[in-house]
User: Fold this.
Amino acid sequence: MSSVGAQKNGRVPSHREIERKFLIKRLPDKLHRWRHYPIAQGYLAIEPAGRQVRLRKQGNTASLTFKTGRAGAREEREIKLTAKQFAALWPATAGRRLRKMRYEIPWKDLLIEIDIYRGKLSGLVVAEVEFPNRVTCREFEPPPWFGREVTGEKHYSNVRLATE
Assistant:
C-alpha cells in the first residue's frame, strides 16, 4: 500500500488500488526472516456504498486512509498522522478494530503481504498482492502455498472482520 502525502497546493493525490486476496494453505518457510510489523487498525466511518475511513498504526507509523469502491480496484487516499493525532482519534474506533502481524515477502517483482490476525480473529491468515495494473493482476500465478482466492468476498474484508 502506498503512503500518499499532501502536495504543495494542499490537495492529496489519489491512488488506485488493484489487489487480490487469498487464504493461506501453509506459511512459507522461514517467514520470520522477512520484514514484519504489528498493525492496529480501526474504522472511524463505514458506509454501505463502500466508502470507509480507516485509522491504522503500522509499527511506529500512523495514518488515516479514505477508501471508496469495492474490492479488486478502488480509490485510496492516505494521510500520515502524528502519534498524538492517532491517539486522539483511536477511541472513536471502539467496536470496529482488528489486530494483525504483517509480513512482506518479495515475489516476482511484486510484494506479498501476509496478515496473521490476532485476538478474536486468531487463526485467520490471508495474503494480499497489490498490482501495478489490471494485466499484471490477471496474469498473476499464486505460489503453491496460497489457498483459495477470496478477493471480493465480504466475509474476508477488513471492515467486516473488524466489526463482527
About this structure: The chain has one domain: 15-163. Confidence is low (pLDDT under 50) at residues 1-14. The two ends are 24 Å apart (CA to CA).
